[in-house]
Amino acid sequence: MIIGVFFLEIFADKQIKRLITRNGFTKDLIIFYDRYYKVLHHLGRLNEVDANNPSSLMFDEIGDGKSHILVQGDSWAEQFRSKKSQKYLQEYLNQQKQYKFVLAGTGSYSPSVMTSQLNLLRNDFNFNPDFLIAVIDQTDIGDELCRYKNLRKRVQGKIIVEPEPVESFEYNASFQIIDNFKMFFSNHFALFKIAYFLKNKIIYKINKNNYKLRCGRNQILAPLENGIKNHEKLYIIEILNDYFDEAFSSSKLKELIIVTHPHKRHLSNDFILNVGTLIQEAKEKSIYRKKIKLVSFSEILKNYSFNEIFIESDPYSHLNDDYFLNAFLPHILAEID
């Protein structure tokens, strides 16, 4: 009996090591994610970051200058972190050696999560930017109203966004994978770890079969297609001003540069709401309005066709690489005074 359990333990340990190797995760990576997703809803994709550099779940750094330029936002800002973009930014830094870029764009982030992230970057990582570039996408309205409204909290005066509940299967729900790998990296017996994993797998299947997605594409794009009610508009303006307040909570910040870009369906008049309108209204209400610069791409777009700007058939109208590198990035960097 004892010998049988012993060999089962060895077998279970090998299976766990295979799971860990197959996914490429490290203990430090899981610990980092577990620490910060509790206030940031989610971090970068575990399978796309450098497992030996856990902070890459939240940001990348380029340059050695003493003056920090922080880039925040959703997948539009995340494009700053691509290899092509980082090469472009490095060339910029070769001429502007006084700067250092901190690239913190993360898919599906919006101002509430950016507010929490900014506080963490300052207090936990000592990044106190001189310039803050906030890329606020049109879909941030839907993200705020659908994804984050019930998860956004104010704790000890600070904005946080809690992760999805345990039973959630929303986009970027992370509990299941984090919970399993925390167990795999624990000091428990391997048989206990396997039993825990199998139990979670059964619960996962049951929950998935019964789950109705809360925030799909239709819900995220609905505010742009149909507009929003007045109380929703006031809520978005409040969220934006909370972000402005966090940004200027440090006197070191010289300027907040807010970047917006129309989607393809704005240009075809299928969308009736533009996030830039809400940002302009929020700015006018802010005591920091003189330090907030809004960057518009309306004029630049006149020189391009749709196919030169957007990734084909992308419902979220992400920018193609050529336009991003040759128009979007240069125009933004030119705004840094």
Write a structural description:
This protein is α/β, with parallel strands linked by helices. The chain folds into 2 domains: 1-58 and 169-213, no CATH class; 67-147 and 229-337, Rossmann fold, CATH 3.40.50. 50% of the residues lie in helices and 11% in strands. It is built from 15 helices and 8 strands. The chain has helices spanning 2-23, 27-40, 75-78, 83-95, 111-123, 140-148, 175-184, 190-210, 217-226, 230-247, 264-267, 275-285, 298-301, 306-309, 321-333, and strands at 60-62, 67-73, 99-103, 131-135, 152-155, 158-161, 255-259, 292-295. It has a 6-stranded mixed β-sheet with strand order 1-3-2-4-7-8, with helices on both faces. A two-stranded antiparallel ribbon has the order 5-6. A hairpin with a 2-residue loop joins strand 5 and strand 6. Helix 5 runs parallel beside helix 10, helix 7 (175-184) packs antiparallel against helix 8 and helix 10 crosses helix 12. The longest helix has 22 residues, at 2-23. The protein is globular, with a radius of gyration of 22 Å.
N-to-C series of helices and strands: HHEEHHEHEHEEHHHHEHHEHHH
Class from helix and strand fractions? alpha/beta
In total, the number of strands is 8
Shape: globular
User: Which percent range fits the helix content?
Assistant: 40-55%
Number of domains: 2
Per DSSP, the total helix count is 15
Largest sheet: 6 strands, mixed
CATH topology of the largest domain, by name, is Rossmann fold
